[in-house]
Amino acid sequence: MARVKLDNYVVPAAPRLGFRGWLRWIWRQVTSMRVALILLLLLALASIPGSVLPQWPQDAAATRAFVADNPFWGPFLDATGFLDVFGSAWFTAIYLLLFASLIGCIAPRAAHHYRELRRPIAATPRSLSRYDGAGPERADVAPDDALARASAVLRPRAGWVGALRGYRVRIDRRDDGSVALAAETGHMRELGNLVFHASLVAVLLAVAYGTLFTYRGQAIVVEGRSFTNAVSAYDTFSSGSLFDPSDLDPFTIRLDSLDASFSDTGRPLHFQANVTYTEPGEEPVAEEISVNHPLESGDAKVYLQGNGYAPVLTVRDAAGEVAFSGPVVFLAQDAAYTSTGVVKVPDVTTGEQLGFKATLYPTFLEGPFAVGSIHPDPANPVIEMLAYTGDLGLDAGIPQNVYTLDESQLSPVQDEDGQPVTLRLALGETVDLPDGLGSVTFEELPRYGAFDLRADPSLPWLLTAAVLTLVGLATSLFASRRKVWLVARDDDGTTVVTGAAYAPAHDAGVGGVLERAIAAAAGREPAPGAEEKEEE
């Protein structure tokens, strides 16, 4: 070490760490348990924006709208990665540092624990007076035989298995002629601690693996129509960054019927989708998908998430040509399945484009002040519609929500008094639009099923790691390190046995172990309650 002379004193100068020294210091800081806890807290805090703010991978349309509605904060949050939190560089840095910290904490402790398991136990202390002791007691056998009986009670096990699950016993003959027994157990506590921390790393690895390879999609299928498992067929689809769309299991689902039953008061009782499931080269199979009973296909499961009505509407333009015909998905707004939907008709032969905002009443009832549906079943289905003309905005190439109508370039169709016209259609009825704009026909009322396909290959690993985390935590909390010592010496032809034990303050059971051991050495029955005390 360099020294600096100051007057009559020689003061040691601070050592220069150098490049390797700084690296060593940084590694020690990163692998400290304090930094690991800080990084775990930072990871939890960094996940909050990913749950609060819209994210590009999950909902690009909502994120785009958020950026457009917030001219300052939107671009700023996007540039700093807050709109793609789990793919940002700073979140990845926290994640990797947490990995390094946990592994750097676990590896040295695991190596040390392994050495401890293989290391012979320490000899009995020369003096037992500073420990909680028992005895002296007199035995009717020689010192060696007395301690052999005590050892049998402890049921010793050899090797590292004994260090984990039982007592390791050591018997020594001292220079003064006495015989000493040392027994210890309790390495399971440290093993549980290591399992707990290693399982935390496994949980993080499983979450990372699932984030990279998981996929999930939602699709709405109308009765009588089919769905093919391809990314382009989903209404919404999200996946991990390493997921390959070609890994999707090729299958087709045809929704034959959707059974929905309700009580007389409209309370839902049961929903079931009756589908025909087909894999390439295989015969079609009839399957049933109901709530909490998904259809399994390879690693993925198909859940029935919702249902509703998809009225089949036909719109004719001013020239009498069919401009639109097909089912339109309506979204339920209340328990009576009062549903709303939008019909967009851009392909008219002549005139302006048509748009409709519609409300479906499955069991229509008109009162003196309002109209509505009184039951979810289609006992008296009626659709009320507001018609619009103008530019639907579809030609701009900007994606639109199929459940909303952009009225910025539309004008409502009005009657002679200048009031918006409300069209009312019963099932099978055709209504003409004012001013010769065309007509609308309510053809059929099929149901639809909303299906959710999920596949996360990390779930079995995540479950295993979570269970091991709980097992390791319970072991580290309830297992205890115990040490028991007995000394037997010959006193004028009589064997005298003394003993002592050491355990953490919360471990009350060690007293029962010491009592049973010294009672066996002395050749008597243990004191009442010793067995129960050990179990505690």
Strand and helix layout:
Elements: E1 3-6, E2 9-12, H1 18-30, H2 33-52, H3 60-69, H4 73-79, H5 89-118, E3 132-139, H6 143-154, H7 159-165, E4 168-173, E5 179-185, H8 188-213, E6 215-222, E7 226-228, E8 236-239, E9 252-262, E10 268-278, E11 285-290, E12 295-297, E13 300-309, E14 312-316, E15 322-327, E16 331-332, E17 339-345, E18 353-361, E19 364-366, E20 371-373, E21 382-390, E22 410-412, E23 422-426, E24 430-432, E25 439-444, E26 447-455, H9 459-478, E27 482-491, E28 494-502, H10 510-522, H11 530-535
Helix pairs in contact: 2-5, 3-4, 5-8, 6-10, 8-9
Structural class: alpha+beta
Annotation, overall tally of beta strands: 28
Low-confidence segments, ≥5 residues, pLDDT <50?
A: 532-536
Our count of domains comes out at 4
The value of Rg in angstroms is 38 Å
**Separation of termini?**
55 Å
Structural shape = elongated
Give a quick account of the main beta sheet: strands, pairing sense, barrel closure.
6 strands, antiparallel
Mean pLDDT, to the nearest integer, reads: 89
Give the DSSP E fraction (strand runs of 2 or more residues).
Answer: 25-35%
Alpha plus pi helix count: 11
Instruction: Work out the helicity level.
Output: 25-40%
What features would you describe in this structure?
The chain is of the alpha+beta class and 536 residues long. The chain folds into four domains: 19-109, no CATH class; 120-186 and 480-535; 211-309 and 450-466, no CATH class; 312-445, no CATH class. Helices cover 31% and strands 32% of the residues. The protein contains eleven helices and 28 strands. The strands form seven sheets. Strands 16, 17, 18, 21, 22 and 23 form a six-stranded antiparallel beta sheet that branches. Helix 2 (33-52) packs antiparallel against helix 5 (89-118). It is elongated, with a radius of gyration of 38 Å. Residues 532-536 have low confidence and may be disordered.
